[in-house]
Amino acid sequence: MLKRIRLLLAAVLTALSTVVALAAPSAAADTPVPPSSAGQRWALKVAGHFVTVSAGTGGDSKLRANLTATTPGTTEQFTLHTDWVADKGFGSAVSFRSEATGNYVTTEDDASASMLRTRATTIGAWERFTLKQLSDGTFGLLASNSKYVAAELGTYPDAGLLRARTAQPADPNSLGSWERFSLVKVGGQGSTSPAPAPTAQAPVARDVVSWNVCANNNGSCSLNDAPSTTVATNVSNALHQAMGTRRPDAIFFQEICEKAAKPLELALESWAGPMDVRFMPTSFKVGDTAIEAQKDCDDSKDGVSRGSFGIALAVPDSNTWYQGTVLPSPPKKTSTDFAKEQRPMLCAVMPAEGTAYCNAHFSSGPYTDANGKPAGDDTDPSDLYRPKQAQAMRDTVDGLTPLGYTTYYGGDLNTTQNDVSYLDPLYPGHQECGQPTPSSPHTGAPTDGNNKIDYIFGPQGPTYTCRVVDGTLSDHRMINLTTS
Fold first, then answer.
1. Contact 284/339 with Cβ under 8 angstroms?
2. Are the C-beta atoms of residues 361 and 255 closer than 8 Å to each other?
3. I want to staple 346 with a disulfide (CB 3.0 to 4.6 A). Which of 95, 97, 280, 357 is the partner?
4. Environment class of residue 68 by beta-carbon count within 10 Å: exposed (0-12), middle (13-18) or buried (19+)?
5. Going residue by residue through the chain (484 aa), what tens digit of pLDDT does each one get?
């Protein structure tokens, strides 16, 4: 019943799509974070106590060391984020977003005694913290006021209250127990249980689309600073026009922002039938630590947060299991180098249909940026990561096959036909959209300028048709595999 109500609502929204596409929503109409995000959740502990957000009655959103909580509930959970800092790049600082409030932790000014509260809707200087790794494996949290965060030892009402009040010592390892924080992973990235076995055999006929929608900060793309609802409406409309009367079985999206996922799900349902849209963020290693934080999308032109940057997977509503993976990705080569994007993969299974789908966005090879400068992450010919990413994807696919699933996989693999050997692990026993037969050359129509860098793979045996369609919104064209 709930799904039917949502479907009716989505139909109304799509009927108004022209108005939605032109009318920019106000900053107050912020889109919530979808519960289907596969971003890692974390809990903070200090002196053995979980940090909690006072989000209940009173709603002051203050952070405190909870002296009674023994397990991390919603008010003790955060996602970690990182945004671009001039001359330092991504990964130089981390921001905490509360699962309870949906807001970022900010350091208040001196008039508020530098307390920490979750009240910020976007990331700025006061929402950034530097993680200082300490010798015992804990972290000092250096706030934007150049002081370390401490949990108060005082009595109620300030018991355990977090304030950025400790002056920087010459040696951070001299910080006390109430200034040492542990980061504890909570749950997994998506479903935590093993994938269930299918209850039906996969049909031969499938219709799968992959599209890098370029919806973050690329000035050459029309969605680069668009609000989440506008992205959802325009992407859905472009797909509907490209598909005509056909309905996709799955859609792989790359370069999309987290808060577009739920509105996109509703928009797609108005013409494609009941679907779930899952999301998996791209991440960065924070500083010199092993901690990973989600890359934040640029705020929309209205100044509203669009959440994390990453990939999404639209699958039938029968989906019961999905899981995100951080693929092996290039590290920083020097201490002064910018951090490299840690690339995502997202898989989902449909037991009732016997099918599984995996979407990925591989590391970028060498290219020249808009300023004529060399760019790209996977640029060391002696230590390439795209072959490692391809192997990791294939290992996942091979893990689903014994369960009985027929798997379709691909995405923006950032590899041209000249370097297609990097993708060798993906081909054996499967067939790529663009290959009339499994033994045909690895060729296909360009999907990005004059290059083909977007791929979809499926099982050998069916008759394959592969279309490349310009959706006009992105610098990529969408690729559409159909089997019969």
1. yes
2. yes
3. 280
4. exposed
5. 334 334 434 433 333 333 333 333 333 356 777 778 999 999 999 999 999 998 655 558 999 998 788 899 999 999 999 999 999 999 999 999 999 999 999 999 876 789 999 999 999 999 999 999 999 999 999 999 999 999 987 655 677 899 999 999 999 999 999 999 999 999 999 999 999 999 999 999 999 999 999 999 898 899 999 999 999 999 999 999 999 999 999 999 999 999 999 999 999 999 999 999 999 999 999 999 999 999 999 999 999 999 999 999 999 998 989 999 999 999 998 878 899 999 999 999 999 999 999 999 999 999 888 788 888 999 999 999 999 999 999 999 999 999 999 999 999 999 999 999 999 999 999 999 988 888 888 888 999 999 999 999 999 988 889 999 999 999 999 999 999 8
State how far the alpha carbon of 342 is from the alpha carbons of 59, 309, 314, 335, 364, in Å. Answer: 36, 12, 22, 17, 11
Report the C-alpha dihedral over residues 16, 22, 28, 33, rounded to 10 degrees: 70
Which amino acid, one-letter code, is at 68?
T
Residues with Cβ within 8 Å of 194's Cβ and at least 6 positions away in sequence, in order, are none
Query: What is the token pair recorded at 175?
Result: 């910080």
Angle at 386 between CA 380 and CA 391, to 5 degrees: 135
Report the C-alpha gap between 340 and 10 in whole angstroms: 38
Residue 422 CB partners (closer than 8 Å, separation 6+): 384, 386, 387, 390, 415
User: What is the value of pTM for the model shown?
Assistant: 0.92
Helix (H) or strand (E) holding 265: helix 261-272
User: Which phi and psi (to 5°) does residue 312 adopt?
Assistant: -140, 160
The Cα–Cα gap between 347 and 401 comes to 13
